[in-house]
Amino acid sequence: MAFFPEKEKRPFVSVIVPVYNDERLIGGLLDSLLSQDYPKESFEIIVVDNNSNDTTCDVVRSYPVALLHENEVQSSYAARNLGVNAAKGDVIA
Hints:
Layout: E1 13-19, H1 26-34, E2 43-49, H2 56-61, E3 66-69, H3 76-86, E4 91-92
Parallel strand pairs: 1-2, 1-4, 2-3
């Protein structure tokens, strides 16, 4: 069952993912987000790396998502805020 009727306009959703040294799990998260049934043209995924020193960014670059970098402040809050500032969505997740 669809959340929105087919003729109803869906809001554009920005999904913000702050990440730090998570090379083992970020791919699974992105696979899940990209396989959802919400229309691809109605959402964006913004991953904000918080100065990882592993291969997290390499993994993220292999996906059709935006990758930003928060290297000044080591905090998931700072990373999330950078993503929110770049987001285009009507809804932020």
